[in-house]
Amino acid sequence: MRKDKGTESNRMKVVVLIDNNPGTCAELQTEHGLSIYMESGGRKILLDTGASGKFAENAAKLHVDISEVDVLILSHAHRDHTGGLAEFLKLNDRARIFLSAHIAGTCFTSTRGGVQRDISPDFSLFKTHPERFTRVTHNVLMAPNIEIICRFPHFFDQPQANRTLFANNMPDDFRHEIALLVHHPQGNIIFSSCSHHGILNTLAACGNPDAIAYIGGTHLLDSDSENQYETDAQIAAIARKTIALYPQIKLFTGHCTGIKTQKIFSEILQERFAVFYSGFQTDIFD
Questions:
Q1: In angstroms, rounded to a whole number, what is the distance separating the alpha carbons of residues 88 and 57?
Q2: pLDDT tens-place string over residues 160-180
Q3: What is the DSSP track for 67-81?
Q4: Per-residue pLDDT at 259
Q5: Which of 272, 264, 219 is CA-nearest to residue 244?
Q6: Helix, coil or strand: residue 55
């Protein structure tokens, strides 16, 4: 992001601790999962814990101290975002952990690949550490400039890959998904790990058209022999609508964003598009 203006007090640091995509550092691990660390307004925030404890191994190599994290946000119930929670609890005994109240008592499964798999979080951790968790059902102002977004409009179509995901054997409506909105002097910054509601609906939930960055997945997967998802034309339409409604935005994506989607978005958004990876870092100033 632009660095020619601003002061250290308005600096926002973002580090992708783990992602599907490998970066240039061979020492960093990758996995089908996502964990993003950020510093804003004097607070150290972690969004998700990836699929395992590998996020913490990468964090140490990236000089990010997990024990100093003030807040952990679990974006939704799936294991590729909650699988490292046990490791986080071992390393951090202080952070407040926010998650949706709609996660409790639900079995989350995926039929992608033709086999039904349980992708639920480890519910036992919620029982053994009850004092650590804050369950939310509505938008919450977590700090003067940081808001948890729980409610999403459905003005636009949701990603077609959602049809392989279930909650208690019913199609998942993703009421358990939350996003993070940072009100920054330069403009709004949105973090949405998978965007199961769709990138356009998530942006709409976050309000003003002055968004300067969207960091997270799009859940626009590549079609395969078993599943046909969005066509090239549909993906292009989403990209064009995004830049038309949010002309200042830059999209940073990786996890759960197909190679075809990355190519189409890159062609349309050009310099306003970037692919992140394990170890990716960026700074945002006002």
A1: 11
A2: 999 999 999 999 999 999 999
A3: GG--EEE--SS-HHH
A4: 96
A5: 272
A6: helix
